[in-house]
Amino acid sequence: MPQQPSIPKGTRDFGPLEMVKRNYIFDTIKSVFKLYGFQPIETPATENLSTLMGKYGEEGDKLLFKILNSGDYLQHVDGQLLADKDSVKVTTKIAEKGLRYDLTVPFARFVVQHRNELQFPFKRYQVQPVWRADKPQKGRYREFYQCDVDVVGSDSLLNEVELIQIVNDVYKRLGIRVVLKINNRKILAGIAQVIGQPDKITDITVAIDKLEKIGLDNVNEELLSKGLPQSAVDQLQPILKLSGNNNEKLEQIAQVLATSEVGLKGVEELKTVFDWLEPLGLQTPVELDLTLARGLNYYTGAIFEVKALDVQIGSITGGGRYDDLTGIFGMPGVSGVGISFGADRIYDVLEQLDLYPKSASQSTKVLFVNFGLTEQKWCMPVIAKLRAEGIGCEIYPEPAKMKKQMSYANARQMPFVVMVGEEEMQQGKLTLKNMETGEQQSLSADELVAVLK
Amino acid sequence: MPQQPSIPKGTRDFGPLEMVKRNYIFDTIKSVFKLYGFQPIETPATENLSTLMGKYGEEGDKLLFKILNSGDYLQHVDGQLLADKDSVKVTTKIAEKGLRYDLTVPFARFVVQHRNELQFPFKRYQVQPVWRADKPQKGRYREFYQCDVDVVGSDSLLNEVELIQIVNDVYKRLGIRVVLKINNRKILAGIAQVIGQPDKITDITVAIDKLEKIGLDNVNEELLSKGLPQSAVDQLQPILKLSGNNNEKLEQIAQVLATSEVGLKGVEELKTVFDWLEPLGLQTPVELDLTLARGLNYYTGAIFEVKALDVQIGSITGGGRYDDLTGIFGMPGVSGVGISFGADRIYDVLEQLDLYPKSASQSTKVLFVNFGLTEQKWCMPVIAKLRAEGIGCEIYPEPAKMKKQMSYANARQMPFVVMVGEEEMQQGKLTLKNMETGEQQSLSADELVAVLK
Predict the structure, then answer these.
(1) How far, CA to CA in Å, does A368 sit from each of A394, A427, B34, B409, B418?
(2) Is residue B3 pLDDT above 70, yes or no?
(3) How many CB atoms lie within 10 A of CB A94?
(4) What is the pLDDT of residue B1?
(5) B19 to A40: CB separation less than 8 angstroms, yes or no
(6) B365 within 8 A of B427, measured Cβ to Cβ
(7) What is the enclosing helix (H) or strand (E) of A304?
(8) Quick check: B204 pLDDT over 70?
(9) Residue B190 — very low, low, confident or very high, per pLDDT cuts 50/70/90?
(10) Are A417 and B37 in contact (CB under 8 A)?
(11) Nearest chain B Cα to A6, which residue?
(12) Backbone phi, then psi, for A342, in 5-degree steps?
């Protein structure tokens, strides 16, 4: 007896119930993307390792799944490397391809490779799996979907505004209450510049982040302990004590950053975004949050993060502006801005809040009970008629026991069954049973279509 | 300057235009699958090599893409194996996972692994990419999608009939004229049995296949040259001279197979399928074709193949019944039947016959021309209103030259543009221009919604 089969750790099978829920999420997100004029693309699961390596840091290189070259791949590997069992060096000789690690680098590669066929600004969305050889743990998988939406080739802040609108629309449709936090990399750069500590930005944002939890005095102490001089900590005080609404906070920041050109540019950008958003009356609160520091080496302008208000879970959407995505592939000066929706976390939020629409699980509306070959043959044209009218239906493929057939209909959550026996065939009628109420009706085929449609 | 980036050979990027067409195909196929009560599943891209190896023959094992283990994978490999540069043996030590080669083996693994959660008969569809390290050539890729639909856990021939109905419905919706060829493995087994040549089945079907091209005499000569005794060739004559409609042919076959139990069972099965199909009046002709021998070692009952009538191209859909799919994973006695749609070939057929619906390429209905920041801000709530009504629209993100904005709208095949300048803002009206006719209308926001909806 063979061993019970299994799948690689960190990967998942999705059965029908999960698929219906996942498709509900993907379809909702995609339908919003489309309303904003974003177009789908897909890239191959495998990329050349030369495309992927060095793009995600040293740690990232290790997390790439690498694909063994085909054929007699060891033939041309230097014997000494093999004798040394130097896994890292041997890898470069026996693996040329890897599985994509995210959708951003393949997108950059796509834009550069197809630059002459594309219309700029190029607005694309991409919903595909990515793979990472991370240690699997709760909520972290080795294969998971990303849902990315990006605009490249436009500096306009209108793109930032539209991405925020997209976040608002997606979560409104899904029924999830969220807050969108926004920051700007240029403001962080300005703060570092003004206090003369450009390499302490991370320490500063980490400290600010603890403000509510540990209080101002402790934060100041922590900053000193991280090596910030007293003068820098003093200069930071207005930043730590920011209060009021977004625009009031921006005013206070602007005063601190008065001498920093880049810092004031950041303030100006955020002001414009808030100004343009204001008349749109979004349901989603948009909050300035200086502690947002994701992708710090990567983003050059806006930084976004979205949190669910009613579930304790990390960021469910995030992104920002990057000024030179395609530079690594030899096409400099193309600015982009994008966000990524985390499907797995959104799934968990919907599950916890019980927000999936009930209809999502009903793919088949009615089961025709199979009473025997004659009845089956009598029913088949009626079933074909229902399907032609767009009504999903099934007939149990064998004349199995009634109980078995009914429990099949129940397990599949079908709202109706149709029964046709000798009497029905004689009268040219079908008996429709409502599985919830138990109510039965005797109907002609045409009437059945009308009732089920 | 970095090298122009590229993708692994045999793989493809899909840009927006291709995606729209591909999604049209996938959506059409899936919508039919759903009407018949099939449910979606997805399995991981990677499977354990123990699941995949040995399932596709020796050649298939070589065509599997294998994934290098993570970390210091060479550490525990026997030094002698490395010194010998024995690629095949070393592979088993350094790669535990591979990319799936088809959807059938992962499906079998899925059924066995989740047997206790599934409702049988289990009707599933699966639309996912597969990977093969084949030599790339025109129309053959290393990454391509399969669209599989299968029922497991039911012996009923109703399943065969419903799969034929699905083929009919899919191609009717796509507008492709096709013929469905059907054979039965049991008939081939019966022929081999009756003439006492069980190992010559392939030679026989190849010879029958040449009948039209080279004539009966040459076919008989070829059979003799393949080592069939004269007596066997004599017995085959009625099979070679089959004439009439499907049922008449089956009668003639039944006479030849009078002494073969399995052969007569095959005849009986096909008779039932034809009998049940008849009253449904399908548009697609269904033809008995004894030369159909695909998956001969695999299929145990019906064998299907679908050919386009108006384009010279290979089979665009195929499948059959297999009596022991899950046996390899320790769950014997579960019969299944399924078919697989070849998305790439269907794509080519639609392209050649120019059958894509025109609407498929229009994702955005209208572009708002950007005349400047004031106009842009004025337009933004109107745009939000259109999107809330489900109308896909965009505003050009910068106040670029009119010509540039119009050429963007043209290249994206947008049917309308909206122009709002000073005059429009004063009057609270928007100018809608039909890009095809050139016609212009002055409309309020509400009127605009009504016209575009």
Answers:
(1) 6, 17, 16, 50, 52
(2) no
(3) 21
(4) 46
(5) yes
(6) no
(7) strand A302-308
(8) yes
(9) very high
(10) no
(11) B113
(12) -90, 95
> Is there a contact between B96 and A397 if contact means CB atoms under 8 Å apart?
no
Put simply, whether A357 touches B (Cβ < 8 Å) is no
- In this structure, are residues B379 and B368 in contact, taking their beta carbons and an 8 Å threshold? yes
- Smallest CA–CA separation between A239 and chain B, in Å? 31
The dihedral built from the CA positions of residue A106, A111, A116 and A120, taken in this order, carries a sign that is positive
**Residue pLDDT, tens place only, A259-285:** 999 999 999 999 999 999 999 999 999
The C-alpha torsion from B288 through B294 and B299 to B301, rounded to 10°, is 0
> In this structure, what token pair is assigned to residue B272?
């039932």
Say if B45 is an interface residue toward chain A (CB within 8 Å).
yes
Q: Say whether residue B333 is in contact with chain A using an 8 A CB cutoff.
A: no
Residues of chain B with C-beta less than 8 angstroms from the C-beta of A1: 330
Asked whether this complex has an ipTM greater than 0.90, the answer is yes
Report whether B349 contacts B313 (CB < 8 A): yes
Distance from CA of A404 to the nearest CA of B (A): 10
Show Cβ contacts of residue B160 under 8 Å, excluding neighbours closer than 6 positions. Answer: B269, B273, B301, B302, B321, B337
pLDDT of residue A3: 66
CB contact under 8 A, B23 and A40: yes
Q: Give every CB contact of residue A383 below 8 A, 6+ residues apart in sequence.
A: A368, A393, A395
Q: Are residues B8 and B142 in contact, defined by beta-carbon separation less than 8 angstroms?
A: yes
Q: Is the pLDDT of residue A1 over 50?
A: no
Q: Is B360 an interface residue toward A (CB < 8 Å)?
A: no
Residues written for chain A? 453
Give the nearest partner residue to A280 out of B129, B363, B381, using CB atoms: B381
- Across B258-279, b (16+ Cβ under 10 Å) vs e yields eebebbbbbbebbbbbbebbee
For the segment A26-71, what is each residue's pLDDT rounded down to a tens digit?
999 999 999 999 999 999 999 999 999 999 888 899 999 999 999 9
Q: How many CB atoms lie within 10 A of CB B427?
A: 10
